Amino acid sequence: MNVEELRTAISQETGPDLFSLCGQVASAWHDPKVSLTDSLDLIVRLVAFKERFEKRLPGTGEMINEIARQAGLYPYVSDDERWTNRLVCEAMRLPSMPSVILHLEQMKVFALLFEGRSVILSAPTSFGKSLLVDALILSKRPDNVVIVVPTLALLDEYRKRLRRQFPEYNVITQDYQEAGHNRNIFVGTQERISSRDISQRVDLFVIDEFYKLDLQRGDDRAISLNSVMARFARTAEQTYLLGPSIDGVSQNEHFPKDMRFYKTSFSPVAADIIDYSDQGPDPDLLAEVLREANGEPTLIYVRSPSAAARLAFELMDRLPDLADERLLEFGSWLGDEFHPEWVLARSVQFGLGIHHGRVPRSVGQFLIHLFNNGRLPYLICTSTLIEGVNTVAKNVCIYDKHISTSKLDRFTFDNIKGRAGRMFQHFIGRIFLFHVPPEDGEFTVEIPLFDGFEHASDELVVHVPADSLGTNARRRRENVLASSVLPAQLLERWSRFGIDGLNIVRDQVEMAIAGGRDTFLWSGYGYFEEIEAAFDLAWAELKFEKHGIRSARQAAYFATVLRSSVTLRAFFNRLVKGEGLSAQASIDQCFNFLRGAEYTFPEVLRCLQEIVDTIAADRADYTYFAQSLQNWFLPGSLRTLDEFGVPVPLIKRYADFLPHESPDEALEVFTSLRLTREAPAMSSVEAEIIASLQEIEPNAQLDH
């Protein structure tokens, strides 16, 4: 039988007798004409059916274990008592992680890392790439580690895992957290790592999802990521870059350190592909798929937050209410605390969650908690959940063929596919296609550091350390700095906003002051007109994410509404218009603004502050307002608790009972329920959210 016939025979338990079936799968493993991907897929399918086959034909389980052992799938034979399998499992068990058995390819990569080699790893989503980060730290005990992640959702996952795994380390994810004298693990997005002063010698430098270094992908955040890469890869003792299914990286012509590129297609999970592309994206068909899944954890990929809202409304008309009292209470709580027209407040009643970058961090974390614990069967998501976040999804529905406004390429498509299935829980995932998949093609990551940034933009050349540049790039950098009247340090720090734009804003500030138009010169909290004037300097000239806000005037208006609103519900009530689907645009705009207020808008104000200071020093000070906006006008640093999983409505309600300048201590107050008797009582939903923060999730063999 060919590979497809063997897959069918295993899943339907048809065809030859089980002994012959196992023999043919074993032969496929040794057949050079059968790809590694196909042969492993067949073996994993045997493992999935091992118990059923053993019942039909005693002894089959041992045969399947033997085949799995030969293929290097050692974690799957750990229950075998025969001395040969016990011996090999012990050999693949790390002394520093006795509960974990590595598979063959993991051990090969770990051996390179343990030797001190710098490695660029390309492996499938289910390989267990991040597990090797933990294994390396536990085995070599580096003093200082820097880990860069692409999203705050993935940052939260790392933070929880590392704090649980390494209590002896200072796990630092926030600016207010101080590094210790001994062991530190700095974890953050490229923007957070870039802005932090890390003076300690770095022993291990890690980038998760390193393909985002490639400038050709059109990611505006690539400037910050490449700056971090240039800063730490040169000085760190060891570098580990990890990413999914990449065919190659650009040749290293400039960087002085050797970095070994290691590519493997080894995957410990299998997947069935169900192709509905000839029927297109059809909500009736998708609802049928979800009903057939019968509660199996299912991710539904869409292109954008607005697409997620539209699909949720379409599915709510087609799916039955789950009649789950706790989900009903959660939905009511979301409506009461944010806005009753928010689609998520209704959709959870149908077992349908929504996860994207604009959903509040705490709410997103609780949705993943419900999903991973079997309480919420369906989760509509965008790429923010696809990029590295660990879930228990058995099924993935690829409902859209775009990511934002661009078509999915084969690489991103394969990354989404890889979220189906999970080791030891769902050996065989299912992928439902609603569009024709992208054509096959090689994907090579161009790493600008490897050619000395010779082909990078002026903004990037100015932003990265000068000693990482090639001859031509260094000359360009010198010319850019020499041609501007702005200080070199200012251009280096803020070049991501555009070199030309920074110079134009500087000239506009000078002319405005000379002409007496100086409304932007203010300090403290700022009035509406003053805030508008400051944002107006930057809005048209600087390159930054506007987060759905159309003008400087609207940004100032949203900021003043947020400042004057006692609750988030009051903030939404003043800005949301319409009902049902028509209300989602303004609700989404509110969430989008809040996301911009966390980082982008305060950073723009800090940049403006430095420009204004070059002309009118001490006449303006946006520092207090920028910091307050970043904290959503909550006391001290309490907004950070939202990233830790505490919803902002709870933070506001209990602010008087919490230490304002220490979110870590405030979190302990919440999780230990040490609130005073005078504090308002929590609802059952709120108590469950807080309880979920203390949950110790099972340490899976392979996280992702």
TrEMBL record:
Xref: SUPFAM superfamilies: P-loop containing nucleoside triphosphate hydrolases
Transmembrane segments annotated in the record for this chain: none
Gene3D superfamilies on file: P-loop containing nucleotide triphosphate hydrolases (3.40.50.300)
Helicase ATP-binding domain residues: 110-264
GO molecular function terms attached to this record: ATP binding; helicase activity; hydrolase activity; nucleic acid binding
Record flagged with keyword Transferase: no
Biological source species: Methyloligella halotolerans
Limits of the Helicase C-terminal domain: 282-468
UniProt keyword list: ATP-binding, Helicase, Hydrolase, Nucleotide-binding
Protein name (Swiss-Prot/TrEMBL): Ski2-like helicase
InterPro entries (UniProt xref): DEAD/DEAH_box_helicase_dom, Hel308_SKI2-like, Helicase_ATP-bd, Helicase_C-like, P-loop_NTPase
